[in-house]
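Exercise 3.2. Students should predict the tertiary structure of the chain below and write it as structure tokens, then compare their answer with the key that follows.

Predict this chain's 3D structure.
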Amino acid sequence: MDYLSKNFPDLDCFWVNRNSMEIYSLRSIWLHLRASKVFIVNGKTDILIWLVGHAEIHNLWHGIPMRKIRLDDDMQHGLNKWFIALSDWLTPAFHYVNSEYERNIIKSAFFRQKAILETGSPRTDIILHQKAANIAETSTTPTDIKKVLYAPTWRPYDSPSPLMSVDDCEYINKVCQKNNLILYIRAHFLENISIESQARFPLIQICDNDNDVNTELDQYDILISDYSSIIFDYSLLDRPIFLYTPDIDLYSEKVGFYLDYKDFVEGNNYTNWKTLMKALSSLTNKKLLENNLVLSSKFKKLGHTFTDARNMKRIADFAIKGKL
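Answer key:
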């Protein structure tokens, strides 16, 4: 939206926050009724969809999925799938994707689309701009302390949390202390997180989920995740990625993947914290580092056609000017 306001001053651009009661205000209703183009990120629940039937809907989506979503998700009940399909039929959207891999997912998971355009996503522009801006700063202020981000995805079923127990925390904190690491945990927004007696583990910190993760990814030297779309986004930074997947078989059975996960990661995943932290503390091992960077490169190649930080321009060229 900032890009549109800056580069198309004749446009009247407005943000609407679905999580605020202000969305039901008279001003918000008036803006919905007047809108000629609507941009959504999480889905049509971002807006009052019943007020914008006249407008073009442009779906930026919020991540490159590994797990099956929407109509492909077997955990969606039949009636719910009918509502999803009906919504897609009544209000089809222009979809913007990062790669051929994501194009095929959108084509399958949405019942009807106006068009699927391979432009890249605005959020990856943010990540690449942050990367470029911080290169000079980090090169002039080196530090021996490595910041590790742990960002697991949500489990849409009852299961033990992938987050660590107190015993795990004790072990992780010791490894971090020995290897100059700080572990930052960013749970999925649908999952509440707290660590018992956190004061005992100063090298394990909980992130504020209110902050935009895209503006912060470049702060971290290493990513730990599982099946989250954040893996695709972090791969743009060309840094090590570790996969912690204690429930890989259950997740595959209950949710399912768009790719053959085990085959794709080629055994570069861990099912308990001790083996993961042992590997993390061995990053000076050249072969291990190369394997992790190769894994990062595979996700980057699969997920991103464009890495030029011009995705928003391509989207605006089509959405506003009608051309790519």
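Discussion points: Strands lie at 37-40, 56-59, 93-97, 113-118, 146-150, 181-185, 204-206, 222-225, 241-244, 269-270. Residues 122-140 form the longest helix (19 residues).
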